[in-house]
Amino acid sequence: MLHIVFHPKYLDYSFGPGHPFWPERAEVFLKRLKETTLPYKLHKPQRAKDKDILLAHAGEYLNRVKYLAQSGGALSIDTPVDAGVLEAAYFSVGGTILATELALGGKRVMNLLGGLHHAGISDSSGFCIFNDHAIAIRKLQKEKKIKTAFVFDVDVHAGQGTQEIFYDDPTVFTLSIHQDPHTLYPGTGFPKQEGEGKGKGFNRNIILNPGAGEIQFLAAVEEGLRLHKKFNPDLTVLVLGADTFKEDPLANIKLELETYEKLGEKLKGIEHCCTLCAGGYSRSVPEIWIQFLRSWGTEDKKY
């Protein structure tokens, strides 16, 4: 059975008219999910606490975000902050904490607002406020529920915030498969960025050229799976960006709807894995999630 994490507060993660991020997609997806034969259970997360946020972010950053929410400011030109967005961000973190805990219990779980990978230690942009999965991993490590984790990021944009947070950490392997950052935001996430210090070799960026399609994408996923198997983590977090779809207005990777079902098939054997949904700006996002779940959401032998 699928376990879907959703809170009505997620719908407040909205940056205003004309902004490419549309939170209503969660409602469209849930309506569409009811029309399928996939069995599922909904879970409502709790709001994260400030002490959770501080596991991955600097105190000065948290104070800045709170100030911007009160004053109506912005982290960047594309990421305005108000009280509703900030509250939704707290619930997104709570949702990913819940999703990771369910995954450790053997559940197949998807959080409908997570994978906000552009949020770094002290700054952010790219529609992200808090790095929910970095916080959840740090929390589980602090509570000694896991030792190691693997971030399997297939969003079309490089997860530079996640990369920064774990860059010197050998206990968290960060993999990002994304469009060449010479051609796309955030302009970083290059193969030469492999981590530093004890974390050297535990950060991997796999680059897709603009116009790449299913063959190139799935080959990169296979390479990621080899790295994952070698690392053998206690927990895996999948950042499922739907912005690799051919109709996405912000990028230039050309995946078909069927590719996401093939992606789910390749990843379904990973144990203790949760899926996070953030990136993706076409109106096909809900259907992309459904296609992925058609394969990933079914039981299968572990690889």
From TrEMBL:
Cited Pfam families: Hist_deacetyl
InterPro entries registered for this protein in UniProt: HDACs, His_deacetylse_dom, His_deacetylse_dom_sf, Ureohydrolase_dom_sf
One of the GO biological process terms: epigenetic regulation of gene expression
One MF term in the entry's GO annotations: histone deacetylase activity
Domain Histone deacetylase positions: 19-292
PANTHER family with a match to the protein in the record: HISTONE DEACETYLASE HDAC1-RELATED
Family, as annotated: Belongs to the histone deacetylase family.
Designated name of the protein: Histone deacetylase domain-containing protein
Gene source species: Candidatus Chisholmbacteria bacterium RIFCSPHIGHO2_01_FULL_52_32
